[in-house]
Design a protein that fits this description.
Elements: H1 3-49, H2 54-58, H3 62-68, H4 74-88, E1 92-97, E2 102-105, H5 123-131, E3 133-139, E4 146-156, E5 159-167, H6 170-178, E6 183-186, E7 192-195, H7 210-218, E8 242-245, E9 248-254, E10 261-267, H8 269-381, H9 389-415, E11 423-426, H10 428-445, E12 450-452, E13 459-462, H11 464-482, E14 490-497, E15 500-507, H12 537-547, E16 551-557, E17 561-569
Parallel strand pairs: 12-14
Antiparallel strand pairs: 1-2, 1-5, 3-4, 4-5, 6-7, 6-10, 8-9, 9-10, 11-13, 14-15, 15-17, 16-17
Helix pairs in contact: 1-8, 3-4, 8-9, 10-11, 11-12
Length: 577
């Protein structure tokens, strides 16, 4: 392992370990923050619940009700509220009439008394009249001291009032700061009003909407602190209970029974240092392992160098042996290809000689056969009427002469390369003509070939007579195949497929064996055992179709019949002038 690779691997391992360590440290920090959040929430809830029922209980006193109905002494009500506030540990306890004016207060005899002050703009007053109870945190308008207000509506014979108790939550804040606990308490709008961090005091968690800021200013909740100019603590909205800041993480929870939220904060400095330490240790361990592996690799290379000479010699011997074997195989392949080429040349020469011989045979035999047929015809005319055997013998002789003429005609077609004259041919006409030619033979076999032709012309560039010759030859082969079998059947169909004309001749005859199928179109190869066939029919068909640009395909299975497909390119459409 090279130095660069070792350093790269160490960096990757360090990055991975740093990521895992940081994730685990943050997860542990979240668990600790959740515990802090739970304890802080319970402490705040307990402090608020301690005096939650005090406004409703104090409002049941006869002195308070008499003061609200203006039938009793206000001094008695003030002294009663002062006594209750002192015993309950409340900051202030005061009674407000339906107009929002304070008519009795526990601080009636102190500077900054609430008596005569109108608090109709406060949400705790409005909520109490509307729903029966209210709670709100705000900075005192009269005293300038912040507090948490709990209110309860007082109903008296058509007259309504509101009893309010003010809690001073600053002792909680002092406790947090003394314990160096990074916690804070925010109101329903996300404004921090208690915090162990002084720089968080009266700052929103996220930017306040203009309408929210307007409502807070109208209610004089944080009067004199410049809330509209305070920077938000979070640059992005919290993700559920999680929040992130610059160098710290936070968890946010709801205080049950209130609209306030508790925030617990944990600096990330220690988490980052621990993650960096683990990453450094992982990098050093990786480098140590890499150095150890490098030493082992160097020792292995030294041993390998000592053994390499013998291994190289063995490899050279093996390579040379393989080269010789490949050379021998190549020479064998060349000899095989040479023999195959020689055999192909010999076969080609044989075929050429056969063609020349066929032409000579045709030339030498055609005229004698014609003369013999004319002689037999003349002899037949001179037969006596009572001679019955001689005409039969002459007929047999003429049949043999005609068979020899057909043979010479096939040989002439096979040996001679005619000039191909192409014209536009509608294939339906030669198919009908070919079927008419073989009908006598078909009746003798006992089968009527089925002909399937399309309604529209199928035109190719070919010769009508030669196409008729091809189809007739294929039909005669099919008749030979179905002769003597039960329920013989022959079908001839014409169709168009992707621009080509296709002729299919299908029979239900004895079929062709798999061994003979590749050779059936070779000259002088025949599967007929009667000696009547020369094996030139399919060879001549292939030659004719090749002149027209067509092909011949034969598919067959023994005892399942044969299918011969002729494919010819369709003639181009004639342009209209």
């Amino acid at each position: 392992m090279t130095l660069f690779r070792a350093l790269l691997l160490a960096g990757l391992v360090a990055a991975l370990v740093w990521t895992v360590a940081q994730s685990r440290a943050i997860a542990t920090a979240r668990q600790e923050l959740d515990q802090t959040l739970l304890l802080t929430t319970r402490a705040v809830q307990a402090e608020i619940d301690r005096l939650r029922a005090l406004p409703a209980v104090a409002a049941e006193d006869a002195r308070v009700r008499s003061a609200l109905s203006a039938s009793g002494s206000l001094l008695d009500a003030n002294r009663y509220l002062e006594t209750v506030a002192n015993h309950a540990g409340a900051d202030e306890l005061f009674l407000i009439d339906s107009t929002g004016r304070t008519i009795a207060a526990s601080n009636w005899n102190q500077p900054g008394s609430f008596l005569g002050q109108n608090y109709a703009f406060r949400p705790y007053f409005k909520d109490a009249l509307a729903t029966g109870q209210g709670q709100f945190y705000a900075i005192g308008v009269t005293t300038g001291i912040p507090g948490y207000f709990l209110s309860a509506r007082v109903d008296l014979d058509g007259t309504q009032g509101v009893m309010v108790v003010k809690l001073d939550l600053r002792p909680l804040q002092e406790t947090w700061r003394a314990a160096e606990a990074d916690v804070a308490l925010a109101d329903e709008h996300g404004v921090v009003f208690l915090s162990a961090r002084p720089d968080w005091q009266y700052r929103p968690l996220q930017p306040l909407a203009p309408d929210v800021l307007a409502r807070l200013q109208a209610a004089r909740v944080y009067e004199g602190v410049g809330l509209d100019q305070a920077a938000p603590l979070f640059s992005a909205p919290p993700d559920g209970p999680d929040a992130r800041g610059d160098g710290w993480i936070a968890r946010i929870g709801q205080v049950p029974g209130t609209l306030g939220r508790v925030i617990a904060v944990r600096p990330l400095g220690g988490v980052q240092l621990a993650a960096i330490g683990w990453a450094a240790l992982a990098a050093l361990a990786t480098l140590a392992v890499a150095a150890t592996l490098k030493g082992i690799e160097q020792r292995r290379q030294i041993v390998a160098m000592r053994l390499s000479q013998s291994e190289r010699l063995e490899a050279m011997v093996i390579d040379r042996t393989a080269d010789l074997a490949r050379e021998v195989e190549a020479r064998k392949q060349v000899e095989t290809d040479l023999r195959a080429t020689q055999e192909a040349l010999i076969h080609t020469e044989k075929m050429a000689a056969m063609g020349r011989m066929s032409a000579a045979i045709v030339h030498e035999i055609s005229q004698p056969l014609a003369a013999m047929e004319a002689t037999l015809a003349a002899a037949e005319m001179g037969i006596k009427p009572d001679d019955t055997r001689t005409p039969e013998r002459i007929g047999k002789a003429r049949d043999m002469i005609r068979r020899m003429q057909r043979t010479t005609k096939h040989l002439k077609s096979f040996a001679r390369k005619d000039t191909v004259h192409l014209s536009r041919v509608d294939l339906r006409a030669p198919l009908r003509s070919a079927l008419d030619l073989v009908l006598p033979r078909a009746r003798a076999v006992g089968v009527t070939p089925a002909l399937h032709l399309p309604e529209h012309p199928v035109t190719v560039m070919a010769g009508t007579v030669r196409i008729e010759q091809v189809v007739a030859n294929l039909l005669l082969n099919a008749l030979d195949a179905v002769e003597g079998i039960a329920q013989p059947g022959i079908e001839v169909s014409l169709s168009v497929d992707e621009g080509d004309a296709t002729i299919v001749v299908r029979d239900s005859g004895t079929g062709i064996s798999e061994a003979d199928l590749p050779r059936v179109s070779e000259p002088f190869f025949s599967t007929k055992h009667s000696g009547e066939g020369l094996g030139l029919g399919l060879a001549i068909c292939k030659v004719i179709l090749a002149d027209f640009g067509g092909t011949l395909d034969i598919r067959s299975q023994e005892a399942q019949g044969t299918e011969v497909t002729v494919t010819l390119p369709r003639a181009p459409q004639e342009s209209l002038s």
